[in-house]
Design a protein that fits this description.
It is built from six helices and 14 strands. By secondary structure, it is an alpha/beta fold. The strands form three sheets. A five-stranded mixed sheet has the order 3-2-1-4-5, with helices on both faces. Helix 1 packs across helix 2.
């Protein structure tokens, strides 16, 4: 988890949606801070785009005080920005949660500027799956307090997802999913942490097709986490989805060895955009 006093930038370096007056493709570097202040936006002909140019621009924008972290949401930007940041000893964080940057890009170029091509969801490896699962809820005022001080091997409670920071009332039900992993509990939790969970998206049951939960992870990865055909489970999934909307997309994923409630293996606070 990133500390509150860490200097963080959000950056994108990709083809502009519009060519220049001569029809040539331009790549544009856009850099902002997490508060949404645009630090710079500069375009360059595609054939000149490289890590050395990027590093020099990042250093110029910094004015002597480089950030500790640069957040990147676009897979196509990741390689060059990572190479440039390495030249400056700056760490790159791969994350979809670059709200400030995406807002700026939308204002400049419209929705297409942040649209990413997402692959169809893949089946979760069978060897990871636990014994059983269930939907659950916690009051918004208890989510962080319940898990923050527990001895949980894997715990992900981003500050910007704390219910109070989202202006949610303390009594708002926060929906979640609990997976009882049995002997696979730690293995599943470690796999999830490596996959970098972002959100659980409920896919409704329709005639001829079962519904389920899709795990959105990494930048564009998607995994079929759970499927359900039972009518009662489908109704519970609808309630889960409704509660997600009421909680501004906030929800959680909890992995435990069993339903005793004595031990937790992994906990993630997630948010569906």
């Amino acid at each position: 988890m990133l500390e509150g006093n860490v200097k963080i930038w959000q950056a994108d370096f990709y083809k502009r949606p519009q060519n220049d007056a001569r029809g040539a493709t331009l790549w544009e570097l856009v850099v902002c801070d997490r508060a949404g202040i645009l630090l710079d936006a500069i375009a360059i002909p595609q054939h000149q785009a490289n890590a050395d140019w990027l590093a020099s621009q990042l250093q110029r924008i910094a004015g002597g005080t480089l950030p500790q972290v640069i957040q990147v949401f676009r897979p196509q930007s990741l390689g060059l920005l990572t190479a440039a940041a390495a030249k400056l000893n700056v760490r790159v964080e791969v994350t979809r949660r670059t709200t400030a940057l995406k807002s700026i890009l939308q204002q400049r170029w419209g929705e297409e500027a942040i649209a990413l091509e997402k692959p169809p969801p893949q089946a979760l490896p069978d060897y990871l799956w636990g014994d059983q699962w269930r939907f659950a809820t916690l009051p918004a005022g208890e989510v962080v307090e319940t898990f923050r001080d527990r001895p949980i091997p894997i715990l992900d409670l981003p500050d910007d997802l704390h219910p109070l920071n989202l202006d949610l009332a303390s009594t708002t039900p926060i929906p979640g999913v609990i997976i009882y992993g049995g002997r696979q509990s730690m293995r599943l939790a470690r796999w999830l942490q490596d996959a970098r969970p972002v959100a659980l998206q409920s896919i409704p049951t329709v005639v001829g097709e079962s519904g389920g939960l899709v795990l959105e992870a990494g930048l564009v990865d998607r995994w079929i986490a759970i499927t359900y055909e039972d009518a009662e489970v489908a109704r519970s999934a609808t309630r889960f989805h409704d509660r997600q909307k009421a909680a501004r997309g906030l929800h959680f994923l909890l992995v435990q060895p069993d339903d005793s409630g004595m031990t937790d293996t992994g906990f993630w606070l997630l948010k569906l955009d």
